Task: structure prediction
Amino acid sequence: MGEPWSLVYSLGDSFLQYRPGGYHPIALGDVLDDGRYRVFHKWGMGIDATIWYARDMKLDRCVTIKIKTAERTKYSQELKILLDLQKSSNGHDRDHVIQLLNHFYIEGPNGCHQALVFELIGPGVDQTIEGAASIPEELDFEEIVEAAVPLLRGLDFVHKAGHAHGALNLGSLVYKAEHLSQLSEQELLRLLGPTESRTRGDRLRVDPGSGVPERIVKAACWDHWWEFFPDVYEGRLLRLFNFEGICGTGASLGLENHGYDMHTTTNMAECVDFRADLWAAGVFVSSLSH
Result:
């Protein structure tokens, strides 16, 4: 489908993206934030970050860590907005927005990288739609409504707090997997699929310490994902994710710079606010019904 935050089935990112200003090199088993988080699998990647599964060894639970490129770290407003949303008193609709647990910074060979720690998340809705052929029953009207409600309530919460998402796509809505966070790494790996990677080989010659990893890790497949979520399309399991394109409701945001790909039929890049979110939400609901 081409959304930048889709879970990738292939190895996805390129060694060329590991450069000064680019991705931070991560290897399975790496320990981050002064020994608190141990990386054991990969959720996926986007144009401005890689996203990993890790064990929080302080609280003994699994979490999701988004590590931004050094370039994005310099001007990203995502952390500021997420903290602002956490302070909002807009009722229970905040439950439809991803929960930020912690944040820290990584100094690496490619620069300084912001790392955001979130609750454990499952696959994105984009992946579940791509895999819908594996689910025996089709969605009926009530199931479509149940899937759309958390998106609309989450957007309502964000808009009332004075912001717009600005980069909404099918990969921006993910399944909450908190009920799996207490599993051991070995148990969770059985759900995520095996860890696979490819080496850079001899064709890409780099100096030691250059910031290019020895291997690139394939993202989790979540094979048979629907077996591990009690009610696949129950709204309480869905969370708004990826606020990298978020902006104030009166701001202008270039869609082409933020991977906005919701099959829009009009050029809305010159003026983006909450109305663009509503357009994207409509396309989202339409996608569920086909």
Remarks:
- The chain is about 20% helix and 20% strand.
- The radius of gyration is 18 Å.
- The CA atoms of residues 162 and 191 lie 38 Å apart.
- The longest helix spans residues 141-160.
